[in-house]
Write a structure and sequence with these properties.
By secondary structure, this protein is an alpha/beta fold. Helix content is about 50%, strand content about 10%. Helix 23 links the parallel strand 14 and strand 15. Helix 3 runs antiparallel to helix 5, helix 3 packs across helix 22 and helix 4 packs across helix 5. The protein is globular.
Amino acid sequence: MAKETTPKVQTIDPAAIEVLKRAEELGYSTAFSRASKMPPCPIGAEGACCQICDMGPCRLVPTKANPDPVGVCGATRATVAARNMARHIAAGAAAHSDHGRDLIFTLEAVGKGEAQGYELRDIPKLYAVAGYFGIKTDGKKPEQIAVEVAQKAIADMAGQKGEITYLKRAPKKRQEIWRQLGIAPRGVDREVVDILHRTHMGDDQDAEHILHGSLRCALGDGWGGSMMATDISDILFGTPSPLVTKVNLGVLKDDEVNIVVHGHEPTLSEMIVRAVNEPELIEYAKSKGAKGINLCGICCTANETLMRQGIPSAGNDLNQELAIITGAVEAMVVDVQCIMQAVGDLSKRFHTKLITTSPKVKIAGAMHIEFDEHHALDIARQIVRVAIDNYANRQQTQIPSHYHDLVPGFSHEYIRYMLGGTLRGSFRPLNDAVMQGRLRGVAGVVGCNNPRVAQDQAHNYIVKEFLKNDILVVQTGCGALANAKYGLLLGEAAMEYAGPGLREVCEAIGIPPVLHMGSCVDNSRILTVLAQMATEGGLGEDISDIPGVGIAPEWMSEKALSIGAYFAASGVYVLFGVNSPIANSEEVEKIMSEGWEKMVGGKMEFVPDPEEIVRRSLAHIDAKRAALKLPAYDPTKFGKSGDWRMRELLQMPFPERIKALYGMPVAAE
């Protein structure tokens, strides 16, 4: 009997369920149906396949006759699994850092006055970033500073010796660990090349040494390319602050031109936001019979635009095909990363125009309108006109009614502000809440969707369990959109799902129990929060001392592995769901868990069962609390203050309420 490879419950999203029924009726395949028909390769899935030279591919599957097989060249299972993992991490680091490179080039063009439609929207952040690079700002115009920052940033990414500038943003103890271990990264470009070279046939054949190099490469992403991408996005498009918007397929509109932006780079999508609001193009849409233009996003481009401009999101990664199947999308505009090739064929079966825009990405059958930051606004207007002209070709639609409000936009700057105010921004109140036990700890729950497991289910289960146990959760990327669909990114969620201590914190500060911190590249914001918590005092001297965990419950991308590795190298316990790509080698599993923990204070484990992820996470958080000599977690100590207490009091008869408030009975009449 064939092994079941896809869950019977494909998704917990009611909008997705509705559209999947339509896809089945129409006979269209989706990632969900293809996953059920195509089992994963049992050899490759566990890291047992080596294909880096033509003596193979070699399948290193243990049998009774050969319990410890080696490749034709003699490579062991540990070597092969480590090489595969290192190459995944290098690819993920390259993708995130290349995102940063494109933003750096845009910043330089803006500074030179050569980038149409762009401006420097966060000048204070520009000055802060200039400070990181040691650039003097006195007497200089912001545009000149922008050019100098861009030039320093590009040089940093390509650095051949020394170490990247942004490492200085980590706690001093953490910097010392990296330097002592020799994993303080040079430029990320250099580190990616290093991994690809050392994993070529006949090079590095020591699993521990290979993985040691992968940590250095990942750090070049997390504390380099990704962190710079986040900073420069903020400079160009504005540092996010909370606002209210909507998420899920119900944001599509039946009587307007629907444009969906999908991918990861905010440079073009920001210009499309501007173009769809131009009166001339709105009138043009009305001349074609539409009531207006409705822009929404999918995946991380959605996160970029929704956290800054409040543009609604049509959902996370696995919603990309479903949006087209509604029949209501005039144009899906894509740039890079996480774009399924299947949308090319699917768009032809409907009226949707699939438009590729990156010089790095073309999809067979798609329209290609190449993006160039020097003519960005004109290109955006051209794309919007293509969508408007396509409105007349729309046929039957079936848009689900399901959507939910959410509050995105919690940059690390805003978190400092909301905890301490404009003049005294500080992480002290957050640290105090952990030290007192109101917060048991903190968790970052991030990452993709994967059709090998039920869409959103693990994200939703794990986060609800964390909230119940007084753990403040931050989310990015598709994980943030997953829980936004079910109302967890609203203030009201604290009343329904949070434990008593977390509820008090949310009431006092006025925040949701789950904080949306941006797109997947913005995981660097979480690094910054952890670094500032460590330097604030009271929770040790390093990120590894903090009672916290990182989880990628439904990961599928190599970028997720790079993120996990740089968090582990920064001192965080990181758990991945779905399956283990290193299951074929106990040695590699031990290196990435016990070995990394001894070496860098963080570790990376693959745990398919969400319940086990929660159990290990809570045990780790409690162990960190004990090591800091903090009070043991006790949820009965808190929860009788703030709005919750007032609600309870208002339900009491008047005499009892006065006694409860003042400790005295009401005087007799």
